[in-house]
Design goal:
The chain has 15 helices and no strands. With 302 residues, the chain is mostly helical. It is globular and about 50 Å long.
Length: 302
């Protein structure tokens, strides 16, 4: 049964789901930042993935009809996608730990820009001059934030960009394998492969949480991450992408505001300017996708 909010238009419901996604992403981000002071981010990535496996159990033990929906044929593509998502998770958590929260969040919004670059060679899509222009603007915004040669560069910025790039590649592979094996198969295989792939890095920094507050924060991390994923899917399923997409950028307000209040992190002028350009470019890409497809697939970020 599909869960719908009563007495709301599609766009209004989509906006509420987008706000729920912002809430989930903010909870996840803050949990990682607090926990990373005592637990290495590779361990956090594994715990998040291992506990998230609980959501896969209904597909594995839900009867023959449910298991038929997760028949996997393109194993190599499924494995590649799972490894990319594991890379996204590890690099993303590291960037949240090392960078100001607003900076890491802005750089995560580059995923749709990278996805546009990959759409042609990977999916065979035609990318017109307007989308290429928006993509170039996104990279310009990145250069403004990185400021190469001006002393403000932090190597963790490159890690955040790698996270966005890996997620964009995973999105492209997700479209291919979903067409072949279905979305349920993609969900199950990704969950299993990510949990396995995040284990070896975690073993190098193995540290089982002991304090009650740590497990509460881990619960917030897993719950927030799951809420963000589900809410993103729902938001773009019921609402118009051009209307829903701007609400996702409230993450900058919630995450950046939390960074300022809780960690005394200020946002400098170049970061604001570069972030505004990146947001404008990704929003334009979302709008062009809506015009081109009618109802596009979600434009997501890590």
């Amino acid at each position: 049964m599909t869960f719908r909010l009563p007495h709301l238009s599609g766009n209004a419901e989509g906006a509420l789901w987008a706000l729920a996604s912002v809430l989930g992403a903010t909870a996840m981000t803050l949990a990682v930042r607090f926990l990373a002071a005592e637990i290495h981010t590779t361990m956090l990535a594994f715990l998040r993935s291992a506990l998230a496996l609980l959501t896969v159990l209904p597909f594995l033990w839900g009867g023959a009809r449910t298991r038929r929906r997760v028949r996997i044929t393109a194993w190599k593509l499924h494995i590649a996608r799972g490894l990319l998502l594991a890379l996204t998770l590890n690099t993303g958590f590291y960037a949240i730990w090392k960078l100001p929260l607003a900076t890491s969040t802005i750089l995560f919004f580059l995923a749709p820009v990278f996805a546009t670059v990959l759409a042609g060679p990977v999916l065979g899509e035609h990318v017109g001059p307007r989308r290429w222009g928006a993509t170039a603007a996104g990279f310009l915004g990145t250069l403004i934030i990185l400021r190469p040669g001006f002393g403000a560069f932090d190597p963790a910025m490159i890690v955040a960009i790698v996270s966005s790039m890996a997620f964009a590649c995973a999105l492209m592979l997700g479209r291919i394998v979903a067409d072949r094996d279905g979305t349920d198969a993609v969900f199950v295989s990704s969950s299993l492969i990510v949990a396995i792939a995040t284990l070896p890095p975690a073993l190098m920094h193995w540290n089982i949480p002991l304090a009650a507050w740590q497990w509460l924060a881990i619960a917030a991390l897993v719950t927030g991450s799951s809420l963000r994923t589900y809410a993103d899917i729902k938001a773009y399923a019921v609402g118009d992408a051009g209307f829903v997409a701007p609400f996702s950028y409230l993450r900058l307000v919630t995450v950046g505001g939390a960074g300022y209040v809780l960690f005394a992190e200020a946002i400098d002028g170049p970061t604001v300017a570069g972030g505004a350009i990146i947001i404008a470019s990704t929003l334009y890409i979302a709008i062009r996708e809506r015009q081109r497809r009618g109802r596009p697939r979600p434009v997501q970020t890590p």
